[in-house]
Amino acid sequence: MLDVPRHLFVDAAMQHRAYDNDALPIGYAQTISQPSIVACMSAYLYQSLNQSLGYFNNVLEIGTGSGYQSAVLAKLWKQVYTIERVEHLHHNVQSKHQKIHLSNIEYFYGDGHLGLPEKSPFDGIILTACCVEIPFSLQEQLVVGGVIIAPIEYQDTQVLMLYKKKQEEGKIKWQESLICEVKFVPMLSGVRNQA
Ligand code: SAH
Fold first, then answer.
1. What homologous superfamily does CATH list for 6-182?
2. CB-ligand 1 contact for 32 (6 Å cutoff)
3. Residue 176 alpha carbon to ligand 1 centre in Å
4. How big is the chain by its Cα radius of gyration, in Å?
5. Is 173 exposed, middle or buried (CB count within 10 Å of its CB: 0-12, 13-18, 19+)?
6. Considering only CA atoms, which residue is closest to atom 13 of ligand 1?
7. Is the Cβ–Cβ distance between 127 and 150 less than 8 Å?
8. Distance from Cα 85 to the centre of ligand 1, integer Å
9. For the segment 99-142, what is each residue's pLDDT rounded down to a tens digit?
10. What is the Cα–Cα distance from 8 to 133, expressed in whole angstroms?
11. Who has the most CB within 10 Å: 11, 34, 63, 165?
12. Residue 189 catalytic?
């Protein structure tokens, strides 16, 4: 976290709040996540993959947004893939990562519900927008032993959930853990390409 200067990912008008522990607006009704939540999600993903797989090469992020979470992930993973549905946010992010010499991130413009079959399977998947359940395509694109971390809408609140994919007697089983309550923007369908 100390290696990723958050002010690079925060809008000009919000620079004075770049190092507050708050989510901040980034336009298009979206937000850069709160740093403590970025740390929490990255650490849970890292630790649980370390326990279950013992290695982790690639991670898929749904919701590139400002690019802050993907920058933190790029410090820990060999390869990061990130998908964003708002074209303007997708186009703006690469130059920020170049400023801090990150070259292990690949960017995709599209609907994260579909995942990235061409780059799968992934060791880890992180959703940074809230959904009701994990889209089936993402479940399929995870290796056995892999981990998905995601904010899930549950009875009028949102909870951060961790799902570990297991295989027992030839059948896929999911081990679930609830981490904490959170507040994320919703995961929407389709793409947005107008200003
Ligand atoms: N990880 C981001 C958090 C951004 S907020 C950061 O560090 O700044 C969530 C992002 O998810 C928004 O940019 C929103 O446009 C995006 N999003 C929402 N639904 C999506 C979908 N179906 N596919 C891809 N991105 C999506």
1. Vaccinia Virus protein VP39 (3.40.50.150)
2. yes
3. 23
4. 16
5. exposed
6. 65
7. yes
8. 7
9. 999 999 999 999 999 999 999 999 999 999 999 999 999 999 99
10. 32
11. 63
12. no
